[in-house]
Amino acid sequence: MRSSVLFSYLLILLATACVDRISFDFEKPPNNSISISGYISDQPGPYEIRINNVFDIESKESTKIPISVKQLKMSDNKGNSEILSEVNKGIYQTDPSGIKGQVDGVYAITVELFDGRIYESLPDTILPAGSLDSLYLELKSKYNSIGEKIYSYDIFFDASYDANSNNNKFIWKQTSTYQVETHPEYAQGACFWMPEISKCNFVPPCSGYRNTGDNIHPVFEKLFTCTCCICWYSIYNENLILSDDHLTRRGELNGVNASNIPLDKWTLAYKIRVEMSQMSLTDNSYHFWKAIRDQKEATGSLFQPITGKIPSNFIQTSGNTTRVEGIFFATSINSKVKYLQKFELPTEVVLSIPTEKPIKAGDCRDAFPHSTNIKPPFWID
């Protein structure tokens, strides 16, 4: 009996060790939960909503698969509404000249799936954002494990709000964007089969180079524009910054440390655009973000338990009942932007090449997280 049990365990280990986990891009059955996330603000659109199917792989984590829906509508309390367009699978946007958020306006979305399920968000109001008064940085340095001096900038902000009003709930978001250029034509080795030329292209096709020789003696010529040579990357504040940690009786916040930006030859290859945003929250949206923050902080504590289920501001009005998560909220935004340039650094600062995140030869989108090869509309060369 003991030997048969051991043999069964051995079979399970062999089976799981030899099979890689594979993700398939197909519609999941309706018993999987759905995730909806996005917001409308008093800033110019388009506004973006993302729809995903969510299913557990192994209780410790979940996978999100973008899905298309039958219809996604955004509406306000004045009778205005707009059907959003799908710009990429699971990503929906309003028209730039369409519905626009205004302070004191009330907004909601309705999501209809192809299987008949319909979800509606609870109406949310745009409250005044207060004022983001200043954005400033402080140069930091330390030595890494090999004794090399590395530099970074701590990001700080000052803000204010009307302490006498009921609008005292905010979230602050920091986004730093930088540009990097790679050389995918150097990433030779793999065979990218190109039916149009009936041969292998041994460099990524997005490089614009094509093999004009043969598979034995390849010759590469630049025939097309590279679409994966230049990318833009974003760094976000790791910890959620909410107003409950910073509110004062005077309605002023000073010297709040938002984030840290590493300075090296990649992040400062051109420049870094730092944007700090102060976003107003209603009670409903505030409780959502607070639950997210509390749960994240609890996972790093030996004594504080996980706080439980993350709230959702969606209700299901039709179809087979399934769980819905995420949030659609309305917000007013006050932002400040600062650009960092290499020539602004003190002369003694020598930028390093980080070994822990080397630029991989190949598609620039694989170099760092939060990447895109589409130039952001705010980026100025």
Tell me what the structure shows.
This protein has about 375 residues and is mainly beta. The chain has 3 domains: about 160 residues, no CATH class; about 140 residues, no CATH class; about 40 residues, no CATH class. The chain is about 10% helix and about 40% strand. The chain has 2 helices and 25 strands. The strands form 6 sheets. Strands 1, 2, 3, 6, 7 and 23 form a 6-stranded mixed sheet that branches. Strands 4, 5, 8, 9, 10 and 22 form a 6-stranded antiparallel sheet that branches. The longest helix is centred in the N-terminal third of the chain and has 16 residues. The protein is globular and about 70 Å long. About 25% of the residues are buried.
DSSP summary, beta strand count: 25
Structural class per helix/strand content?
mainly beta
Strand proportion: 35-45%
Number of domains: 3
**Quaternary:** single chain
Summed up, what is this model?
The protein has helices spanning 2-17, 283-298, and strands spanning 33-41, 48-56, 62-66, 71-76, 81-83, 85-88, 91-93, 106-112, 118-121, 124-125, 131-143, 149-160, 170-181, 192-194, 199-201, 209-211, 220-222, 230-236, 241-242, 252-263, 271-280, 314-318, 324-331, 333-341, 371-372. It has 381 residues and is mostly beta strands.
